Amino acid sequence: MKRGEIWIAAGGMYAGKPRPVVIIQDDAFAELDSLTFFPLTTHDLNISALRVPIDVSTSTGASVTSFVEVDKISTLHRRQFSRKIGAVSTRDMRKIERAMLAFLGIGSPR
Predict the structure, then answer these.
(1) How far apart are CA 67 and CA 48, in angstroms?
(2) Would you state the pLDDT for residue 61?
(3) Average confidence (pLDDT) over 27-39
(4) pLDDT at position 6, please?
(5) Are the CB atoms for 100 and 73 separated by under 8 Å?
(6) What is the pLDDT of residues 14-23, one digit of tens each?
(7) Which domains does the chain show, CATH number per domain?
(8) CA–CA distance, 26 with 14 (Å, rounded to integer)
(9) What is the pTM for the complete model shown?
(10) Are strands 66-69 and 34-41 parallel, antiparallel or unpaired?
(11) Shortest CA distance to 6 belongs to which of 65, 69, 70, 62?
């Protein structure tokens, strides 16, 4: 399980059923028994700063346009991740990182 991969995960505060998530935790922390991620949704709430679109392709496993929910950062035990379905592109990962930093207020001038 690596940063940028898309997995199906079960559980969590905002998930009533297993759903796709993108892992954002750095690979340097692979020994931890938990993983930090953003869930994916197909609903664009017109909140462009909080919903990052990812490419639809065979590499992502997404068959319809999906959005990374950067305001729903979560952590689950590794056993709650059932299968890898793809990975985001390097370009999309950079967009996700920028949105995450903005959401958390890291690096923004105040």
Answers:
(1) 10
(2) 66
(3) 96
(4) 95
(5) yes
(6) 666 899 999 9
(7) 5-104 (2.30.30.110)
(8) 23
(9) 0.87
(10) antiparallel
(11) 62
